[in-house]
Specification:
The complex is a heterodimer. Chain A has helices at 13-18, 123-130, 208-211, 217-221, 312-315, 404-410, and strands at 24-30, 39-44, 55-60, 72-73, 93-97, 104-108, 116-121, 133-141, 144-151, 164-167, 174-177, 191-194, 199-202, 228-233, 238-244, 249-257, 265-273, 279-286, 292-300, 303-304, 319-320, 324-329, 335-340, 345-350, 358-364, 387-389, 395-399, 418-424, 430-439, 445-451. Chain A is mainly beta. Chain A has one domain (13-451): Methylamine Dehydrogenase, Chain H (7 Propeller). A four-stranded antiparallel beta sheet of chain A has the order 3-2-1-30, with no helix packed on it. A four-stranded antiparallel beta sheet of chain A has the order 4-5-6-7. In chain A, strands 8-9-10-11 form a four-stranded antiparallel beta sheet, with helices on one face. In chain A, β26 (387-389) and β27 form a beta hairpin. By secondary structure, chain B is mostly helical. Chain B has one domain (2-220). Helices cover 79% and strands 0% of the residues of chain B. Chain B is built from nine helices and no strands. The longest helix of chain B is centred in the last third of the chain and has 38 residues, at 150-187. Chain B is elongated, with a radius of gyration of 18 Å. Classes of the chains: A mainly beta, B mainly alpha. The A-B interface holds A 1-5, 9-12, 15, 80-88, 142-144, 170, 195-198, 235, 261-262, 462-464, 466 and B 24-28, 30-31, 33-34, 37-38, 40, 99-101, 103, 105-110, 116, 120, 189-190, 192-194, 196-198, 200.
Amino acid sequence: MNLRPDPTFHASPKLAMQAPVENYAFTVMLSPDGSQSDGIAVIDLKAGSDTYGQIVHQVIVPNKGDEFHHFGWNACSSSLSPLTGHAFLERRYLIVPGIRSSRIYVIDVKDPLKAHIHKTIEPEELFAKTGYSRPHTIHCGPEGIYVSCLGGGGADGIDGPPGIFIMDCETFEIIGRYEMDRGKQDKHYDFWWNLPQDYMVSSEWGLPPQFENGVVPEDLLSNKYGHSIHFWDLRARKNIQTMDFGDNYQMALEIRPAHDPTKSYGFCGVVVDTTNLQGAIFTWWRDDDGVWQSKKTITIDPRPEKPENLPPLLQGFEAVPPLVTDIDLSLDDKYLYVACWGLGEMHQYDVTDPMNPVLAGKVELGGIARGTNHPNGKDFAYGPQMVEISRDGKRVYWTNSLYSTWDDQFYPNDEGGQMVMADVGENGGLTLNKDFYVDFPKGLRSHQIRLEGGDCSTDSFCYPSV
Amino acid sequence: MADVTSMAALWWAVIFSGLYHGINPGMGWPLAVSAALMERKHSAMPKALAMLALGHFLAMIGILLPFSLMIVLVAWEVEIRVVAGLLVIAMGIYLLINRRHPKFLARVHPARLALWSFLAAMAHGAGLMLVPIYLGICAIGADETGHLAAQTLMNNNVTTAFLVAATHTVSMTAAGGIIAAIIYRWLGLRFLSKTWFNLDIVWALSLIAVGAFGLYAALAGH
């Protein structure tokens, strides 16, 4: 408990943009075959520092086979919600779930160079208290920390639907399930919300048997992965509308609502349209009657390729699908970054008009059957994947691994973990920074990035940018 | 003359407790700022403040009324005031030990400001803080008017309860409203987090102090 709100809590997105820039990044390191322990890499981002762009500390967990994926903070700018009146939590702990083991680590990063494990929640406790497994997205919200899970109960995670559970933001005790009425929701992936407007949006990847041992081509071609998003009355914990994008829009993943809480729209990325292998972005919004609507506002075409250059999985299609696996929206709601993990491209769209995005910048790096090198001449394994934007919107960081077993299917000959950074031009545009290239320790891959003091996919704001 | 002075002091205490509650962000002024900003119109702020005031007033009167009915039992006046003082002290100690903030407040819909304000005041024992002051006012009032019929005494006490709750709520709304307006119109949101102090311990200690005062006043004769 502090006497004043944590200085990294900001009332509005605009104030967060004006705050001091990030000094450190925390990035997931995962062992794809469970032969090593996973960990969190602390990376120095201080311009001019002797160790700039280097891993300056590692928190390695004692267990193996956790498979770290996504993670988040115990507290963020949502603590300034006028409804709480107690803004005195600290942004101090990272909640890091193992997506394969269902174990959750709470890591104290108050001093990033001495970051250490504060608490471990064993999988049995999660199963017993929630009936969920495979914890994934973390957001700090009204009653505590919300965690989405990709699996239900049982060994395969298909015993009952997956969902969200709530955890105490100070003691890290698991409180219980979030949902009171889940409606048609039977799969899970990402979720985010607008706190003052009191709505939440959740998305769908697939059930554990559909992803744990790799993508299941038959399921994909028969459109059995998730293709709906769900709108919730956040406080009533009730699914109020399920929006089906259409069977062919397979894997509706990242949910990115506008950061400004007066706006009632956002985006969702779809990995692949099975009719034409395109990647797609939908814009969703609430109309004047209070009904949620959506429209496909971005499509990205596949690239034709000779079968002999393709992994076995794609040879029959003679094309490289873009595979939109992550998207991220800058705090001013101006630029949407779209990772095309298959093509090996990072796109920057100007979404000032969310219904008419305009491609403003693009970087090529890695990619299936292309493998573009970094401007420093080094190799980049796989393609651009988890993307995180600095609060001021001037730097965009990303890593390269999607998910252990999927990496091996789409890039059977690649191995390695890298994190890079691109500078954003004054009027848009994206240029890879030659001097920033983090190569992860041998045998470890990288996934989500969190920036010290908050970033563009953690903080929820309760006051508009005025 | 001494009674007039203590009476004035007690009414000032009602006003000061209102100002004190008003500046505490836990009693809702940040909600008035957010209402004006979210609805993008100035008129939303007075509306929000009025809703917050209504909830706060109901919480105050909800606590004071039962006491106003009880102290008709003139014979038990001292005992009632002692129990009231102990109750307030107990609430202060509870808040001092249990430093977790009430989570159910976050479950109230952001638009239901009066309900939120009522629950916030209840959860923090804001009404209790007024009880010893209110009982002091009633005791002096009873002395001054001599031994009236029970009915009249009760009417007087109920009127006083409403007056105390209203005076307190007006000063609370003024204090919170001024902070909200200054931040909204001039200082900007940056000052929202800067003016936000953790009053939890001070608040709990205030309850204990007010309760102790109530005990002292009851036992010392006023």
